[in-house]
Amino acid sequence: MPTIMIFHEVDDVEHWLSSPKREEIFGPLGITVRTFIDPANTHRVGLIVQVPDMDTFQRIMESEAVADAMKFDGVRPETILTLVEP
Fold it and tell me: Alpha-carbon distance 64 to 67, whole Å?
């Protein structure tokens, strides 16, 4: 199962942490997500994501549902950095 690390900034960390959107979108696809915050930067957060397969993950990340969820969560898309375990 591929593991991905994602870093980005959000408008409001508490809102992002409490959002149900990650589970609503990723849960039914068997994608698990662990959340992290940067205690030194109040807007930087991170995720460790385990996906059944990269094709499914890439397809969902390009969907309107994810774009809407990121907007709801206050994600700053221009700050997203994605790293994939080799």
Answer: 5
